[in-house]
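We emphasize that the prediction below concerns an isolated chain of 151 residues; any contacts that depend on oligomerization or on bound cofactors are therefore not represented. The input was used exactly as deposited, without trimming of termini.
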Amino acid sequence: MLAASGLGLAAMPSHTEAPVESPCIFIEGLELDPGVDGAANLRGTLTLTNTREGACGAVVQLYASHPDWEDTPPRLVATVEENFEGNESAIISFPIDARGFATWDADLEGWIVASGIYRITANYSPDHAEGARSFDQEKTLFFPANWKKTD
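Result of the prediction step, given as a token string:
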């Protein structure tokens, strides 16, 4: 699902780390679909499975890191909240808001999503690195100061 596009995004090989496990929800199969313009329309897909006999809910957090952010912790870029009946499994698709990747550029008076390799992890906290995928944002993206989320 990590497809290269002609507008500046190249696919990166996936990590082969063990899936993340919570007390009742098992996370596996994180995939990223960058669309035609990279981080501007990034979508994620996860497979979540309730490992209990009874109902269970979980909030999965997606964190991003970038080499330019070395002095800061990973950024929370998306959350996925799901409730399941016993032993139920589902494939969940969701948008990842590009504003989570952006930094303010005072010289340009706008927001930029820097080029480079972004690493996304699906976890229950930023302290874990399991379930990681990466994508290469080959072109820097610029957004105006009044940039708002669009669906």
